[in-house]
């Protein structure tokens, strides 16, 4: 059951993490980063989503010297327009026109936009404006006419760091009077670098007539109009030194009007050649911090967790988002700065689509982790990267996330850590002890034998010594009849007679004739006749007598010769066997609730033995109700104070959950290994030893060896009695805190103790599961209680249970995790 809950928790975390990671971001994109003077580009602010932002678009257009940024004529102002984007998903855009008449490098700063009450920032955009005189022109033939065009690769940085990702673009200027059906995909060579595929920016791929209109694809060069086609991509160098992109060629499909057929056209493939560009990469500086994994760019780190309230042993999902610009497609997940006490599973990355080719955006990771012990926070995560703008290594640290954990009641995995506890030597338990196996008998309803019954033995010894003394003192006056002594001696000879019929009956006949001659019992005559028949026949005399016949004869003669009156005092004890055969099986199958019910239903509650109550406590713990587990361990100890397993499990549970209970020194736990009645027995044993020792002297003659034993008893008895008295005084007894009938136990996972009998009353303290308290009074559904730490307050009655139930208790049940409350 607990494993199923853990799986459902992890699944819910995955779904929530996916939802969180899919939160829309505001992005900025530009139709071309490389423009000739006077050429216009379209800057688009894109907000993905089906619903339009609630706020009206309020964005300040940045002022960049010598660079003009204004609203596009098609849009007419700053407002959101809806369109279908890539993947046929709706998005909202705002378009701006960008151009400059001054060659140089420009940076459009991050734009701030209010979306659903939150300020969103776009990434800054770098671009270059090129003098048209710097273009290199080439020639090709279309429909037997020579046409001039310009085509070249452009990169923002000619000397990047090795591994640094940067925008790169193939830009083609082709005469406007020549229509083109398809601009093709370049086929290019590369050496020492990696680059995504180059593909043209087409108006029909960018929207539905909004934004990138025909003006965004035109440029005026040398007094003529040209198509301005951009093939954007990204690239990064793989080695230090020279790297080459190109040469390349792109095959376009030119539209040629038909001379023979009016309005008909045919397509002519035209190959455009693009020269190569060279880059000279420089190495990263030395001294990279530990944890650097070739992340190059400018990044921000955000870490969050969907669930911050869990039970010990449950997994949790941590969402990590790295946003910014750089080699996003090569980033490795951040690592926790302190993974001690955590089980880390393999980190998964959220799959990115076509946006993975971009150098701006966000990468999301999911880290599934499980605490191995009680934790108060999720550790900080660390991400190391190299900033090419600052030329330095940077370290990002997330904040630790507060975590609320309740101890687990599930069986621990192999190798689980010892639960956190006080800084003192403790039993290294990772779980409660198992249930008690084997047949369990119900307690008798009759009065059980008293604990002092063992004292009958020393009392009999004393009585024997007193009788011995009386015999020694009064014996001479009370001599036994010599004939009686002789009769007893000869009877013992009869009992020791051989097994053959002749010797046995001869001995019996001799005894009868000497001592029972005057008796008229028919048994005597029958025995004498049998003797005469056996002893005067040789074959019969040597025959072995049947054992049953021998016993019958002796029994009858004993009745006549040695009459004895024997009294028997019968002490009968009735036991009923509890029907719990299925309960251990249900427990092993993980059906803890059914197992507890089976144990409870095995007999009247007053008859349930301590082992059964102990097993119910284990079932409650496994079920997820540690408070009821502590309750049944205490009920076990109330019925049998020497139940070692119940005391050990209760001690473990109170330590693990921090229960408010009586704090006892370790020596009291050692004293509790023996029942209190045993320590009391030491006192009585010392007293009896002294009494017996005193009586041995008058009961024995001078020089008897047993007198040495009595002297040893005089030495041992005071020590034994003193140990019993001290142990009795210091024996752990919860009844000194409150009588058993007034003791109650907190069964809720965590109960808020209030100053008054009302939910809105201020809180006094949080009482963890298993806390022991004294019931002072009741008021409606509330109880006024006192704890062992002298705190007092009101608790709902449903959150506590009495140690001694008034009626048959209900089986333990699962109690949901309650959120801890704070005082206002």
Low-confidence residue ranges: 1-23, 204-216, 422-428, 564-579, 819-824
Structural class: alpha+beta
Distance between the termini: 37 Å
Average pLDDT number: 80
Number of strands: 42
The shape is elongated
**What integer value in Å does the Rg equal?**
50 Å
Percent of residues in helices comes to 25-40%
Strand content: 25-35%
Number of DSSP helical runs: 16
Biggest sheet descriptor: 6 strands, antiparallel
Features:
824 residues, alpha+beta, six-stranded antiparallel β-sheet, five-stranded antiparallel β-sheet, elongated, disordered C terminus
Topology record:
Elements: H1 2-21, E1 27-30, E2 34-36, E3 41-48, E4 68-71, E5 81-84, E6 90-99, E7 104-108, E8 112-115, E9 118-121, E10 125-130, E11 137-142, E12 145-155, E13 165-175, E14 180-182, E15 187-191, E16 193-195, H2 203-206, E17 218-221, E18 224-237, E19 241-257, E20 265-274, E21 277-281, E22 297-305, E23 309-311, E24 316-326, E25 335-336, E26 342-344, E27 348-349, E28 360-371, E29 377-378, E30 381-387, E31 392-397, E32 401-402, E33 404-406, E34 441-442, H3 456-474, H4 482-495, H5 501-515, H6 522-535, H7 538-541, H8 547-561, E35 576-577, H9 582-588, H10 592-600, H11 610-623, H12 626-639, H13 644-657, H14 666-671, H15 676-699, H16 706-730, E36 743-746, E37 750-754, E38 763-768, E39 772-779, E40 782-787, E41 792-796, E42 800-802
């Amino acid at each position: 059951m607990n494993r199923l809950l853990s799986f459902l928790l992890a699944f819910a975390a995955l779904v929530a993490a996916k939802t969180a990671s899919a939160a829309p971001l505001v992005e900025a994109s530009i139709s071309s980063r490389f423009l000739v003077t006077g050429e216009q580009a379209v800057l688009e602010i894109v907000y993905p989503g089906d619903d339009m932002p609630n706020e009206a678009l309020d964005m300040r257009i940045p002022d960049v010297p010598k660079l003009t940024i204004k609203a596009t004529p098609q849009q007419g102002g700053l407002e959101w327009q809806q369109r279908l984007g890539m993947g046929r998903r709706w998005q909202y855009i705002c378009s701006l026109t960008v151009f400059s008449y001054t060659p140089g490098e420009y940076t459009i700063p991050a734009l701030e936009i209010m979306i659903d009450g939150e300020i969103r920032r776009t990434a800054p955009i770098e671009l270059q404006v090129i003098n048209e005189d710097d273009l290199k022109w080439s020639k090709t033939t279309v429909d037997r006419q020579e046409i001039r065009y310009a085509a070249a690769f452009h990169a923002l940085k000619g000397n990047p760091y090795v591994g640094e990702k940067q925008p790169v673009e193939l830009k083609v200027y082709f005469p406007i009077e020549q229509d083109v059906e398809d601009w093709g995909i370049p086929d290019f060579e590369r050496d020492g670098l990696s680059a995504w595929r180059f593909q043209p920016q087409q108006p029909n791929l960018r929207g539905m007539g909004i934004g990138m209109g025909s003006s965004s694809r035109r440029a005026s060069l040398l007094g003529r109009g040209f198509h301005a086609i951009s093939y954007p991509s990204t690239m990064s160098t793989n080695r230090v030194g020279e790297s080459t992109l190109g040469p390349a060629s792109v095959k376009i499909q030119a539209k040629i009007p038909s001379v023979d057929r009016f309005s008909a056209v045919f397509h002519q493939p035209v190959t455009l050649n693009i020269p190569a560009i060279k880059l000279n990469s420089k190495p990263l500086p030395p001294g990279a911090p530990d944890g650097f994994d070739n992340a190059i760019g400018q990044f921000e780190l955000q870490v969050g967790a969907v669930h911050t309230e869990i039970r010990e042993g449950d997994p949790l999902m941590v969402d990590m988002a790295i946003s910014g610009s750089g080699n996003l497609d090569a980033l490795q997940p951040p690592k926790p700065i302190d993974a001690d006490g955590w089980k880390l599973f393999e980190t998964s990355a959220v799959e990115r689509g076509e946006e993975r080719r971009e150098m701006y955006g966000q990468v999301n990771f999911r880290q599934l982790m499980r605490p191995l012990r009680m934790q108060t926070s999720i550790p900080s995560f660390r991400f190391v990267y190299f900033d090419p703008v600052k030329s330095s290594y940077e370290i990002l640290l997330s904040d630790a996330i507060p975590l609320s954990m309740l101890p687990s009641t599930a069986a621990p995995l192999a190798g689980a850590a010892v639960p956190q506890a006080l800084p003192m030597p403790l039993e290294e338990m990772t779980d409660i002890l198992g249930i008690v196996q084997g047949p369990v008998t119900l307690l008798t309803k009759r009065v059980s034998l008293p604990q002092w019954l063992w004292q009958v033995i020393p009392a009999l010894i004393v009585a024997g010594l007193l009788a011995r003394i009386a015999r020694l003192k009064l014996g001479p006056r009370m001599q036994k009849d010599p004939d009686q002594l002789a009769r007893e001696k000869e009877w013992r000879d009869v009992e020791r007679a051989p097994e053959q019929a002749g010797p046995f009956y001869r001995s019996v006949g001799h005894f009868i004739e000497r001592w029972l001659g005057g008796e008229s019992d028919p048994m005597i005559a029958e025995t004498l006749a049998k003797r005469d028949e056996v002893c005067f026949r040789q074959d019969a005399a040597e025959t072995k007598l049947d054992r049953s016949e021998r016993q019958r004869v002796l029994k009858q003669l004993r009745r006549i010769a040695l009459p004895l009156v024997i009294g028997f005092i019968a002490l009968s004890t009735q036991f009923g066997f509890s029907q719990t055969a299925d309960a251990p099986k249900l427990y092993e199958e993980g059906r803890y609730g059914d197992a507890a019910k089976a144990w409870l239903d095995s007999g009247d509650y007053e008859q349930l033995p301590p082992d059964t109550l102990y097993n119910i406590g284990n079932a409650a713990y496994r079920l997820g109700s540690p408070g009821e587990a502590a309750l049944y361990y205490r009920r076990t100890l109330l019925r049998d104070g020497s139940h070692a397993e119940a005391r050990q499990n209760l001690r473990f549970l109170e330590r693990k959950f921090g229960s408010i209970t009586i704090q006892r020194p370790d020596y009291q736990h050692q004293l509790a290994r023996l029942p209190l009645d045993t320590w009391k027995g030491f006192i009585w044993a010392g007293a009896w030893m002294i009494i017996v020792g005193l009586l041995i002297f008058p009961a024995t003659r001078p020089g008897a060896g047993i007198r040495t034993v009595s002297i040893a008893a005089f030495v041992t008895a005071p020590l034994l009695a003193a140990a019993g008295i001290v142990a009795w005084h210091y024996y752990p007894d919860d009844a000194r805190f409150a009588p058993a009938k007034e003791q109650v136990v907190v069964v809720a996972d965590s109960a808020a103790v209030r100053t008054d009998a009302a939910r809105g009353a201020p809180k006094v303290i949080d009482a963890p599961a298993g806390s022991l308290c004294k019931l002072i009074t009741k008021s409606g559904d509330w109880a006024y209680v006192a704890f062992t730490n002298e705190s007092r307050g009101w608790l709902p009655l449903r959150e506590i249970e009495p140690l001694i139930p008034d009626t048959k208790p209900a089986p333990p049940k699962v109690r949901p995790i309650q959120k801890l409350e704070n005082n206002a």
